Automatic annotation (TrEMBL):
This is 6-carboxy-5,6,7,8-tetrahydropterin synthase. The lineage of its organism: Bacteria, Bacillati, Armatimonadota, Armatimonadia, Armatimonadales. Belongs to the PTPS family. QueD subfamily. Its cofactor is Zn(2+). PROSITE patterns: PTPS_1.
Length: 278
């Protein structure tokens, strides 16, 4: 029987510091760069978990949502309104990065959730609206993915070089307007890897941000895709082609040892396009 999945969200507030008490001030600054701080800062974290199983025909449910909520509440209780670095033993030796927080919550939830009818298949944590991490247990029990979200403003005209003017107008309608139109594009770039034991990160975030600034923002932000970029001088700047172009620009530039996992482009709130490579 096919599996059904249930997604459930929760929130908690906490502080954390990119600072290991066992290291010297100089060692911490070398390890965590501009984020190194003994005192730290805080976030409203958002958690989304997915459990999956087969339908119980008697109840009409995969699992009782109350049981999921209770297990998640118990898993999050040690983190709520705490300073993770100094009050949660796990983070005394494991930096409280988003990646390690995902790993902690996943382990805690699996311990608390004992219903054999369903299993945890994915867990996602947002630290901020532009930074999140997740584990997909259907793919791996160890790999963690990190998603960086950004947006840029650009114009484009949908006009395929291989079609006549009349054919372009028939296919693309008002989007074939000779002067183009514009969007606030949203982009999600997901990289995957295993957290470094010292930093707790799968990628140097400063280095990743530099790549995204160079390869996405500098290339597309406040540009006319047809006229201001080399990518679309000879091809149609659909969001499908834009997604593939961003993938090609990023694929070999992600700071090692992380690797590019997925690119998502949001053209509007109703149109999303994604690519995960070959």
């Amino acid at each position: 029987m096919a599996q059904l999945a249930l997604r459930r969200k929760a929130m908690f507030s906490a502080a954390h510091a990119y600072w290991l008490p066992a290291l010297s001030d100089e060692e911490n600054r070398a390890l965590f760069g501009k984020w190194a701080s003994k005192w730290g800062h805080g976030h409203n974290y958002e958690v989304e978990l997915t459990v999956a199983g087969t339908l119980d025909e008697r109840s009409g449910m995969v699992v009782n949502i109350t049981d999921v909520d209770k297990a998640l509440k118990r898993a999050l209780r040690p983190l709520r309104d705490k300073h993770l670095t100094y009050e949660v033993p796990y983070f005394a030796q494991n930096p409280p990065t988003t990646e390690n927080i995902v790993r902690y919550i996943a382990t805690a939830f699996r311990t608390e959730f004992t219903d054999p009818a369903a299993t945890l298949t994915k867990l996602l944590v947002w630290e901020t609206p532009t930074l999140s991490a997740f584990m997909d247990f259907q793919e791996s029990d160890t790999m963690i993915a990190l998603t960086r979200t950004l947006d840029f403003a650009a114009a484009h005209r949908l006009h395929a070089p291989g079609l006549s003017d009349s054919e372009n107008l028939a296919v693309f309608g008002k989007c074939n307007n000779p002067h183009g139109h514009g969007h606030n594009y949203g982009v999600e770039v997901t990289v995957i890897g295993e957290p470094d034991p010292k930093t707790g990160m799968i990628v140097d975030l400063i280095a990743l941000d530099r790549v995204l600034e160079t390869e996405i923002m500098a290339r597309y932000d406040h540009k006319h895709l047809n006229d201001d970029t080399d990518d679309f001088r000879e091809s149609n700047p659909t969001s499908e082609n834009l997604t593939l172009a961003i993938w090609r620009h990023l694929e070999n530039k992600i700071p090692a040892p992380a690797r590019l996992h997925k690119v998502v482009v949001r053209e509007t709130d109703r149109n999303y396009f994604e690519y995960t490579g070959n």
